[in-house]
Input
Amino acid sequence: MIDTKKLTIEEAAEMMKKGEMTSVDLVSACLQKIEEKNKELNVFLEVFSDALEQAKKADEMIKNGKGTKLTGIPLAIKDNILITGRKVSSGSKMLENYVATYDAFVIKKLKAEGVVFIGRVNMDEFAMGSSTENSAYGPTRNPIDSSRVPGGSSGGSAAAVASGMALGALGSDTGGSIRQPASFCGIVGMKPTYGAVSRSGLTAMSSSLDQIGPFAKTSQDAKIILECILGKDKMDSTSIELSPTPGVGKKIGVPRDFLKEGVDAEVLQNFEETLTKLKNKGYEIKDVVMPYLKYSLPVYYIIMPAEVSTNLSRLDGVRYGLREDGNSVFDVFKKSRSKGFGAETRRRIILGTYVLSHGYYDAYYNQAWKLRRAITKEYEDIFKDVDFVMTPTAPTTAFKFGDKKDPLQMYLEDIFTVSANIAGLPSISIPSGFSSNGLPFAVEFTGRTSSDLSLFDIEKDLRDNI
Ligand code: GLN
Output
């Protein structure tokens, strides 16, 4: 029996290379897990009917000596990343029947390596949320405790990997949507430097913040996925080639003042214990003062909805999406958008329209951009002294369904994740143990621009210790 809950990508690749297992075996084992668990957990919105066909092709590649570490590995894809000829709904009724007409850049890269796309997985509508409760297709449940959320918005991606339905996954992270669900499900999730991974073929939420990134059980697995999807793409004008960073050291900055408010006591305790473990492994720990960090959340919740309101304006029942008939064009827009979008999406469109409107633009949007620059500069200055900034990934462990009904309470979940998106920096969430009731803890490391690959080395030091 293949234990897909334990098996890593590295191990699977090795076994397939040696002929001890085929991709068909592996994909069958994942499909079996999906069969057993998907009804309860609601992870996959669609399991691709040709998954085994893809696996057969991958086995051919391996047999012909053309295999790489990713050949034949089953990955789950967030429902906002385009694969030609397949549905991609972004967790929304608005795009329920939308079929992609081209491959996202990251999909092209993975296809070239013979990855098996096993299906598309659930998410908060248009990637807005921290719990996957905002999906139009019902919430996803956390595989560790199904009375709790898996985090969001990429809850489906995290749950797929944690439950062994796939060996890795792609998600998108605009303000924490890879790192926070990775934290809640006890796996690794990483957001790359802005531009390092092309956004071509990703349904846009907030274009100056969005990045695609990997989920996996270990950092080394996540690194294998990231290395494949990196690279400059002419279809994304913000795309960059990662410049090689000089050897990154082992100095960690801890913004203590920022950790005081609203963080669960057990999360803080685990954070301190993790710091001690890192110290014992030769890391130098230093308290740092970052006074602008506390503005990250308000800045995010102005810039993000502003961009959401413009990006989603194309979904009007005429150019794209669900269409309701009406008496006039305006009536068509109004009815289609009212029916197609869920409550959270509408809330953010209204908020975004407000902060961009005449009279408020200077008071909110422009101020937020000034602070965005100040936060970015603050990180630049800190990185003259330390190599990483470390915080918990989220202020809580996985919470129960309905616990954060107040949107502001939900937004507070993003307190430690949004600043990396605001400053465009690479950031990783790494598991750091379990609470007394068996829920995963995680810590987050944010590094200098382009230092993406160095973030994957920390986990090895930590894992030996847990
Ligand atoms: N939880 C954040 C939000 O609701 C982040 C979402 C994301 O990264 N896509 O906006």
